[in-house]
């Protein structure tokens, strides 16, 4: 076991990601003690009860006192208020990271921070459709990518903090990539935000076809629909905030998607089988690349069916 | 082991579904012998080589000779030509079933059949993203629904044939539901055809955002995108035919989806967090219902990640 990186980590937001990172940091021996704060006191208490952290804090100030690492793991809509809390309560020289799915808005919020605080915006591209402290597990970040979008600061203290954040993520099994916030927000709009929007929308649209009962949607969901329901079961508040905070990039990629969908619609209307077959052929190579990169299982149906081979 | 239902089954189309049904029928002791025909001779030869069937036929006539069951498991675009083959070569009184994902077009094609042939249109709502005889496995239909859309025939011989088809599907583990073809085509447009169209389109659109490299799409696909690539890796020819043969129903549900998507787009543009959160809340209950119905795993991330709990 390597040496601890931090004496005391404050986990702000005891949800899936906060609880997973707490477990992972402890498992890696990267922190000596852990304290959780959540605006829902029951979540922090639960995190303590199941051993995710050592203590539950009654407020942000109690969590931040003496913490040399603060992890902000709350919906990204709370980032401005939490940066004010950091300014008011973080100890001198604390390393602060967040785990939000949007990074441009986080960089803007961080501009108000005290100069002694090293804030390193991070986005571990990992998760499940589940929420809350009980959903967390230490292996969530294994072989996943964590994107760091450093602030525009050139001082040595900040560079050292970025290095330390990188080491933190590597200790919990992630691969680290650096990126500017605008590119992050566009790339993730493509690979995460648009897919979630589409899944939420498809699930809603299925509810609206009056002549097809929900019981039928459930029964015949193995035809493809069930795949979409996984990410459509994700935390509604977290995702609301993602779309509010990454509006421009999401609208941009949504525009591309809608154009492509209109092309498909026309091909169906006009019976253009050649165009359809050509468009449908692109999926296989991309999936193969994702499997080869270790980001997906090669098993049919994700290996989820009880008796699949 | 129950008694065999058939002496000799001809499997026309040695792909995922044909090979799976052949394996399942044999495992259930429902047939005494199996012969495969595929317009690609290599597929039929492969099915024989790996023990899916006893014999590979050189043409449709050789497969159909002496078969009391003919299973049409080819892309639905071939249904007219295959009904002509059935007329020319099926033995007197043969039971013929298909497994196509569209049923209105199949009923129309069946209108040309000889009166002595009992054609029972079937759609087992099961599959994986893989193709070909090697992808087949006997358990594919376990706990899945098979929809039968009987032709408009009231004679006793036909009713007995429908009963026999029902027994066949139950013997391989499926639950059977009866439906009229138009309702089938609408219900499956919702639960299968639209999801596939959306997945194919999203994968194509991701390719088209020039400033985001495909390598990035691959790396960060765990953010949600990878879920869509499973069904977008499905057989392009099979799916081309589905959209050509179920045009009206697909365009209808696609219109609903596009409207819903426009509503979401406006909510994002105007920063309407309340509307987004409300829309996003619908996904969880539907997923729970699908899990409870045994059509989906309850494990996070489909249980697919190496070290998830």
What is the element string of chain A, with H for helices and E for strands? Answer: EHEHEHEHEHEEHEHHHHHHH
Write down the CATH class of the largest domain in chain A.
Alpha Beta
Query: What is the straight-line distance between the termini of chain A?
Result: 38 Å
User: CATH fold name of the largest domain in chain A, please?
Assistant: Rossmann fold
Instruction: Give the count of structural domains of chain A.
Output: 2
- The residue ranges of chain A in which pLDDT falls below 50 over 5 or more consecutive positions are none
Give the overall pLDDT of chain A as a whole number: 95
Main-sheet strand order of chain A equals 3-2-1-4-5-6-7-8
Oligomeric grouping of the chains: homodimer
Number of strands of chain A: 8
Helix tally of chain A equals: 13
From the alpha carbons, calculate the radius of gyration of chain A and give it in angstroms. Answer: 21 Å
Q: Which CATH-level-2 architecture of the largest domain in chain A?
A: 3-Layer(aba) Sandwich
The CATH superfamily of the largest domain in chain A turns out to be NAD(P)-binding Rossmann-like Domain
Q: Characteristics of this structure?
A:
6-phosphogluconate dehydrogenase C-terminal fold; 309 residues; alpha/beta; homodimer; Rossmann fold; 2 domains; 13 helices; eight-stranded mixed beta sheet; globular
Notes on the structure:
The structure is a homodimer. The first copy, chain A, has about 300 residues and is an alpha/beta fold. Chain A folds into two domains: about 5-180, NAD(P)-binding Rossmann-like Domain (Rossmann fold, 3-Layer(aba) Sandwich); about 185-300, 6-phosphogluconate dehydrogenase C-terminal like domain (6-phosphogluconate dehydrogenase C-terminal fold, Orthogonal Bundle), CATH 1.10.3660. The first copy, chain A, has 13 helices and eight strands. Chain A has helices at about 15-25, 40-50, 60-65, 80-90, 105-110, 155-170, 180-205, 215-220, 225-230, 235-245, 245-270, 275-280, 280-290; strands at about 5-10, 30-35, 55, 70, 95-100, 120-125, 145-150, 175-180. In chain A, strands 3-2-1-4-5-6-7-8 form an eight-stranded mixed sheet, sandwiched between helices. In chain A, strand 2, helix 2 (about 40-50) and strand 3 form a beta-alpha-beta unit. In chain A, helix 7 (about 180-205) packs across helix 9 (about 225-230) and helix 7 (about 180-205) crosses helix 11 (about 245-270). The longest helix of chain A is centred in the middle third of the chain and has 27 residues, at about 180-205. The model of chain A has no long low-confidence stretch (mean pLDDT about 95). The interface between A and B is large, with 117 and 117 residues.
